[in-house]
Amino acid sequence: MKPGSSISRYHFAIWLSFLFLVTNTVSRIVLTVMATQKNTLSFIDLGFSFISGVVYDLATLSYLLIPVLLWLTVIPLRWRHNKIWIIAGRIFSLVTAYALVVLAVSEWVFWEEFESRFNFIAVDYLVYTNEVIGNIQESYPLLTWLSLSALTSVILVVAINRLSFLAQWGHTPRRYMLSGLIIVQLLVNVALSGQAKDLRENRYANELAGSGLYSLFYAFNNNELNYRHFYPTENDISAASVVREQLATPEAQFVSTQPNDIQRNIQHAGTERRLNVVLISVESLSADYLGKFGNAKGLTPNLDRLADSGMLFTRLYATGNRTVRGLEALSLAVPPTPGQSIVRRPDNESLFSLASVFNSKGYDSSFLYGGYGTFDNMNYFFAHNGYNVKDRLELNSNQITHENIWGVADEDLYAMALREFDETSQKGKPFFAHIMTTSNHRPYTFPENRIDLPTGSRQAAVKYTDWAIGHFIKQASEHSWYKDTVFVIVADHCSSSAGKTDLPAERYHIPLIVWSPAHIPAQKVVRLMSQIDVAPTLLGLLNFSYKSNFMGTDVFATPDGPQRAFIATYQGLGYMTSDRLVILRPRKEPEVQQLDKAFAKTAKSDDQLIKEAIAWYQFSSDAFSQGRMKLSH
């Protein structure tokens, strides 16, 4: 088709390109404003994010244009005069504009929650649409937003259709258009990746430098990462020796001299304390919400009282930023592996778990959850690793005071737990229960007249969570099994893990309280420890002797031993000591950060620390993939 002809062959492709770039640019501006509310971005950061962002937008657009250009190339121009074609084209234009506007709004919502572009969390949410859509409906004025998005889409379509130069560009000859697309695609596939943009020290600048749709598909294709393919490695024997050396505690004897075998016989002198154990992993309970860690808003009076009369661990760090990471660490006592949590990975059955130890002692072990445990594969994982699973489906309508899309109110979950404990106790068996709460999660709703704050905010949800725990302990005190029960209260992760750096250590700091006044003396434990150390430390407090395959350690068995914690995203793997943090990233050199009181970052190399970090993550990744975490191993 020659320029000047009445019909522009590639008009829609040019129109789509212009619309895509406009919506993505506006979205980047909005996200930049949101980012600067919590973090300062330099002019260099801003310039980099917008230049790199345009590159990623063009790369994403090139993928979207492949089917569009092929279709417009092969369809005869005479078809364009058909009224059906014209009407269908207008409808398709509106639908396309609406999809891009909704995508932009979705990015803003996702950023508000996670301070990130779409990532592996967004991929997971595409699987569990019921919970996610329900959460959005309960948290935001969805109908209003969708209506405004529709109006915005109409305005965009009308406005862009008035730009006559787009039709002129659409007269580009086919050979130029297709060859240009091929060249761009070659450049994109050779030069770009999801991490090529991560060139600034400021994490927010790197996030803004990407494109939401590109990040989403990159996360989809990289949701599970083979450690050996993407991360630095050490000699297997050398890596194993590092792990074995740190696991060589006084009460543990290795059962084998094989380098990769870490099974130990844990032997404690004296009588085992066969106490009931209730482990409560609280949704998103950052340490800085507690008064014991300096919060002056009075959100956690019950937890603060329990901390005063119980054992408070002040330097515990979560392994990840999602519930499944916390569940993995608390149940398996293993460092996080890159990509998906073990809770969601194939071949995760019959693993050595905290429940398997309790079961070997004659306990009844259970996992109790107030939501639907199919979410994140929780029911399957726990049911196949020694736990009796009870979730929202166990409750009748008359047993529910309040519920939202994530599950019933914490008080209803605790009431279910009390019934379960009574039933087990009547059988004459001790019990171990892992309770996973949901109330401290958006949309932050709970029963009325429980606290002095209205529903709908994170602070209110924290205060209700605290109230529910206090109410649960009070109710439990009226039951016969109470006097022989240890309560363990810990967070699954912090409320947010976003910060200026990839792995801001302060955003992984969580509380741990072990409370049983008749059996556990009140004290403050200031030793640095990881979430993977909770299980062996708890078993040590019970004076249990058992065969262990845990990679965590009893912190009381080695008071002067190595102090370290593991913190991670799905790609960034952190190994933290009291003053330094090693970060391992795919296809990149290890980085060492110096941690001061404000967790500021300065570069400092440490070959020995890097070796330890690599050894732990390499060993734990191999242990799962090679089946060495299995009970039968």
Automatic annotation (TrEMBL):
Recall the GO molecular function terms of this protein's record: metal ion binding; transferase activity
The record's section on InterPro entries has:
Alkaline_phosphatase_core_sf, LtaS-like, OpgB/LTA_synthase_biosynth, Sulfatase_N
What protein name applies here?
Phosphoglycerol transferase MdoB-like AlkP superfamily enzyme
Q: Which Pfam families match?
A: Sulfatase
The record describes its membrane topology as: Multi-pass membrane protein
Query: Which keywords are on file for this protein?
Result: Cell membrane, Manganese, Membrane, Metal-binding, Transferase, Transmembrane, Transmembrane helix
Q: Where in the cell is it found?
A: Cell membrane
Gene3D superfamilies, per database record:
3.30.1120.80, Alkaline Phosphatase, subunit A
* Binding-site list for substrate: H441
Taxonomic classification, please? Answer: Bacteria, Pseudomonadati, Pseudomonadota, Gammaproteobacteria, Aeromonadales
Active-site positions on this chain: T323
The principal location of this protein is: membrane
Q: Which residues form the Sulfatase N-terminal domain?
A: 276-543
